[in-house]
Each structure stands twice: as C-alpha cells, then as structure tokens.
Amino acid sequence: MLRSALPALLLATPLAAEVPVTVTDIAPVQGLVASVMGDLGSPGVLVPQGASPHDHALAPSEARSLQNAGLVFWIGPDLSPDIGRKIGTIASGATVVTLADLPVTQHLATRDEVIFEAGDDDHDHDHDDHDHDDHDHDGHDHDGHDHDEHGQDDHDHDGHDDDHAEDAHGHHHGPEDPHVWLSPDNAAAWLDVIAGALSEADPENAATYAANAETARAEIDAAVAQARETLAPAQDARYVVFHDGYQYFEAAFGLKVLGAIKLSDATDPSPAHLLALREAVAKTGAACIFAEPQFNPRLIDSVTEGNEVAVAELDPLGSTLEPGPGFYPAFITDLADRIAGCTGR
C-alpha cells in the first residue's frame, strides 16, 4: 500500500524552482550579483578581464551565454553599446535589469572638459538636478527589473539620437556619466533590486537572497569606512587618470582629480587636449598619473614629457581581483590602496 501511494505523493509535491541562469556585463556587477546568489549559483560575465566595456564586441561564446540567460544584470547601453544592441535579440526570453535606469541609481553629469575643476565642491551628492522621473521606466516593475518586453526599444541606440551626439569613433556622449558602479551608494542600493529579481525567478530561495543582500551591504559599508581612512592623506593630492571613469568614486571620497587623458566614453584625446593636460600637470605638480589595463599606456608619455610624475595603474573593473561574492568590497579597497599608494609617494 505504501509502495503504491508513493508515486502519487511525489506527483503532488510541487517541483522546486531552479536557480535562474544569470549573466552580468562587467566584473563589479558580477561581484554584486554573486554576493546575493551566494552558494546558490555563480553568475556569468560578458566583458572579459582586460577588455573595455566601451567597445567590447561579444564573442560567440559570450553571445551563447547571453542567449541562455534567464536573468541579465547590466549597467546600460551608454557604457556597453554592443551589448545594448544584442540584448534585445539574443536575450529576448530573459528578464533584463538595466542598473543605470533604476530609480535608486544616482547619476553625475558627464564631464567634457580637458581639465577638471579639482578641489571645487562640484559633486552633488543629492543629485537633485537629475530627476529620475524624466527617465522612461515603462519596462520596469516596482523593483526595477524588466519583464516580457524588457523595454528594449528604450535602450536601442537608434532611439538615443536626440540625446546623444555620436562622435567619429562611434561613441556616444551621454548627458550622464555611465560609470555608476563606482559609487558605493549605488552598489549598495542595487543589492535589494538584485535580490528582488532573483526572488521573483526563484521564490523558494527568496529568504536566502534577502539575507545575502543584507550581509553584502554590511561588507560594502565596512570597505567604504576603511577606504575613507586609507584615502585621508590623499585628500589634497592632485592626480591624472587615464580615462574619466572614476567620477563617482571621487565624489564618494572627496578626491581631487586634475584631469583625464581620455574622456568618459574613452574617446581618443586631441593633441591640444594632451598639451593642456601636460601644462596643467607641470603647473600643479600632480603627484601621479594612473594607467589602465584596458588601454594602451603610450599616451601617458605625452603628458609626462618634461614632468617628474609617478605612474601607477588603476582599474575601474578590478581585473586582477578574485571574482565572486567578495569582489565589490575588495574592489573598493583596491582602488583606495592604489590611489593612496601613488599620491602619497
């Protein structure tokens, strides 16, 4: 009797929901998602170590990863144009969370000047001048992620012509700096959205996702506190970055950056740009110039010519760090250590 009842009992038991196949665009986002997933799964990443999301074209294996995804977390098309063009077609069956478009995401305006206003309190931490109601979130529900239509029409670069002037290199100069993951406040705010999207796809593990998000937030807070202490001696130091990808980090920690060799979209600088930067370095006595592993460092010579200035490496993607749940706190710590180490020489 027990033997005959067992199949019926098994049929009456609801099938456990599977942990969704999850894909991210860049390593810092992968780290945040991994911290929420914990032991339940490991999200993939589309932009490999050493590549720049500004111009990375998906390899066939990366396209297949995107095609098989049930959940996609990415910054947005202003950072990764090729991924933006592919998501709507390759990941048509996935739930897509565009982090830059979330109402919780704080934005800073793109800087188009050769030399930044170092030392001024121009960074607006309240971001009141960026009204998120102006963004079209019709493709999002209340926790910020997309459903069946994914709002992809909103992310098609053909629809950005009115707002973005495209230069000769095919880059888009958006009104807002797309390097939003370098704000620890943004990263912490995204954790709940990530947990919500995962919980909707996998409700049986919702409590685990929520608990993991809370733990991850505490770890980010601890890393930020440590970074503030590390960077305290560097508050008045001037330095140059290879490309203007660190504005959110600068705003979070009150740093004074003289300028960038490449602008926010990684556009190649003009000779006049390099000359102005070289003169500014000589005038201010900038302590350091930071190279990046994603770009050829030869342009640094144009800025250091005639100047005694240290050169070190800074990476907005944390390419040398171990991927996984602890990535983002280690990322904040690594950036702070590198800036303090070079500017304090």
UniProtKB/TrEMBL annotation:
It holds the Pfam family ZnuA. Residues 122-179 have a biased composition (Basic and acidic residues). Belongs to the bacterial solute-binding protein 9 family. InterPro entries: Bact_metal-bind_prot9, ZnuA-like. This is High-affinity zinc uptake system protein ZnuA. GO terms for molecular function: metal ion binding. Residues 119-182 are annotated as: Disordered. Residues 1-17 form the signal peptide. Keywords: Ion transport, Signal, Transport, Zinc, Zinc transport. It comes from Salipiger thiooxidans.
